Amino acid sequence: MIRGTDRLRTDTDWLRSRHCFSFGDEYDPDNTHHGVLLVSNDETVAAGRGFDTHPHRNTEIVTWVLRGSLVHQDSAGHSGVVYPGLVQRMSAGTGILHSERNDLASSEPGGEVRFIQMWLQPDEWDTEPGYAQAEVDGQLAAGGLVTVASGIPGQDAAIRIGNRGAALHVARLRPGATVRLPDAPFGHVFVTAGTVGVEGVPGSPLGDGDALRLIAGSDGGGAPGAGGGRTVTAGPDGAEILAWEMHTRLGA
């Protein structure tokens, strides 16, 4: 478990960024990834500011907005506004330039946008760049675990990603409600709101900004299947979680 207050961080006059893994100038050789998840950044961007045009290559990038809205534009002609309840994926492939900016004017009070951005290594390199976004707010209202992005064959999801061993699930839980995590060798749970208890995890509950890495079998010393299949229970104010299901790791 990594508490939000213990994560690596980058702070500027317009950005507060909290990193689950090494990122940018914040490098820890023992904390570079988990499973196939390379980046999980909790970003807060001031109104009227953002990430100017910059390049990516051979990366699957999934973005989930918690509040505010984020404007995306890229060199392949894709554009969109990402807001809470909508999942976005950009496949960088052979190379792409894009920008991400806060949709609100700097004159609007309290106009920050907060979003979680997650990067994965793709199965195939140097493919054609791609983009997708999908609204999932209605599905989340039911309170269960919703598969919002997946590359796992045969698994239904709002959008597809270019990694056959990974899927992202989201749940918005009412107070006291429970969901069961998918059973997988590697899991990553990030709490975006409220608190949750996780079955078999000392130190619960986890709160907003806390992350949990789950490992099964010989990789983690646990029993087979211990990386998933655990029950997550929301606290008294409810909760939202992002849960990665991963069936492989880098180099495997």
UniProtKB/TrEMBL annotation:
Gene3D superfamilies: Jelly Rolls. Residues 7-120 form the Pirin N-terminal domain. It comes from the Bacteria. Belongs to the pirin family. This is Pirin family protein. It comes from Tsukamurella soli.
